Amino acid sequence: MDPEDVSHLSDQVQIDLEKLEKIMAEFDMGPDSCSLAERTSKLPLLDRAQFYITLSYAILSTLFSSLKLQGVDTSSHPILKELDRVKMYSKKIKNIEELTAGRTLKVDQEAAGRFLKAALVGNQDKEPKRGIHTRFGEDPAINKPERSDAEEPTQKKKKRKQSKGGNSTKTKTKHKQKEDE
């Protein structure tokens, strides 16, 4: 390898490490700061999982790079298995994101109509039927049904009128006769 290529790569590593330090400074776990779990508890479930996977991958890849720089053979090292496991979880999260992105809520209008009809049918039986009550003689705006002179009340109506308020002697004598018997 050319020494110029190595110096260019070391400069790039230095820039990346500075970016990483800025990001990790946000997660400073001082004695007065809240824990990582408390900070991430406000995130939605999918975002929280993605955050933990990304953080795990960043830590593991940094350790992997450190091992490589020290000259350790990483082909059989357990860190390689951990990196593969994190990559697998990352793929699972991407699959879930794709499924939820394509999913939209669709209302089944026919089912909703059947549901509403079934719910409203019961309400009609429970409500009492209300008629319109009109009182004649109180409000001049209400039309009274008019009687023609040709119509005469039946005999029963005449008797009721007489017994209620009439001074008919026949009705009084009938009542007295019934009392005497």
From TrEMBL:
GO terms for molecular function: DNA binding; RNA binding. Keywords: Nucleus, RNA-binding, rRNA processing. GO terms for cellular component: exosome (RNase complex); nucleolus. It is found in: Nucleus. GO terms for biological process: maturation of 5.8S rRNA; regulation of gene expression. Residues 126-181 are annotated as: Disordered. Residues 171-181 have a biased composition (Basic residues). It comes from the Eukaryota. It holds the Pfam family Sas10_Utp3. Its main location: nucleus. Residues 126-138, 144-155 have a biased composition (Basic and acidic residues). Required for exosome-dependent processing of pre-rRNA and small nucleolar RNA (snRNA) precursors. Involved in processing of 35S pre-rRNA at the A0, A1 and A2 sites. Belongs to the C1D family. This is Exosome complex protein.
